[in-house]
Amino acid sequence: MCGGFAVELLAWGNDECHTSFTTSSTTQGNGPDRRSDAGLGDLESDPSGNKPPRSLEQQAAELDVAAAAVAAWRCDQIVRVRSVLGYRVRKAPVDLVRLLWFVLRGHGRWIGKAWTYCTYGDLRADARTARLAGDAEARRAAQEMIRADSRARWSRLGMVTERIWKGAGLAGALVLALWLIDSMMTRAQMWPWLAGVYGVIGWAWSVAKTVVPVVVVAAPAGWLVATAYEGRDKAPGAGFLVRPDREDADSWIDERMISQALAHLGIAPLDKFFKDGGQLLYTVPARLDGNGTYAQIRLPMGATADMVADRRPPGVLLPCRELVGCGVLPPAA
Predict the structure, then answer these.
(1) Rounded distance between C-alpha atoms, residue 154 and residue 192, angstroms
(2) Cα 211 from chain centre
(3) Is 236 within the bounds of a domain?
(4) How far apart are CA 187 and CA 143, in angstroms?
(5) Which residues fall within 8 angstroms of residue 258, CB to CB, at 6 or more apart?
(6) Does an H or E element contain 206, and which?
(7) Would residue 249 count as lying in a domain?
(8) pLDDT tens digit string along 78-136?
(9) Is 261 within the bounds of a domain?
(10) pTM exceeds 0.70 for this model
């Protein structure tokens, strides 16, 4: 018989791996162990093709690497990344439908904004409000503003059109002159600066031939991204991607839920901020803190921490300063 070793795995945890190694060496009769005396060259030349056994140090190093990999796989950050990716894969069809709806709604919002601008919708709304309120002076002022804005717009349009025509005429004359000079003279016959101008024009043309196809392909994608962003859901919260359900059965709180709670407190500056499509700035994102959740928020102009603290429900602790830190405690039994 020949010498050998056995590895026994005792425990496998998140942080470390405990192993026990047992070595044995037996001999047949009183003779020496031939395999133990064999050199590495003899083992490599074994006609059976068996690989030499790995040392105990190699086995321990491999087990340490495996333990580190398992610990990294089970750490909180990797678990959250895996849960988010899995959640997004499962919700991919729903996300696609939502994105298509955002694109359609974004086009609708752009059309609405263009219609409001072209028809002086804001000024007409002011005039209508003044008429309903019976304020003749405010109604006449709003109508006068509509007329003045109309004259200013047409004046700007005329100026822009005139400058475009002048620029197009100048550019056409310059292109015609360069074409005539290039058709009548060679580069060697031209002045050095004129030959340099033609060199720059040739370089710009080659760059344009490379860039224009890329822009033509990327422009529709950029258009879709812009319309989807315009048509996004503007309800208060963290945005389009929401945090998935955690693996535990306990309730959880994220930035979207905190923003929605603040939007329903009835605080006038916050209500106006959310109505205008504002997004709260979380200097510290929502995170677990003991048995509750902690978040740090920068309040908009006009809203103070005391306004939020005055409306806190029972069982909620708000150590309020200019930056509101919300330590949400579990409800009392």
Answers:
(1) 47
(2) 27
(3) no
(4) 64
(5) 280, 286, 295, 297, 326
(6) helix 192-230
(7) no
(8) 887 888 788 778 888 888 998 999 999 999 999 999 999 999 988 888 888 888 888 88
(9) yes
(10) no
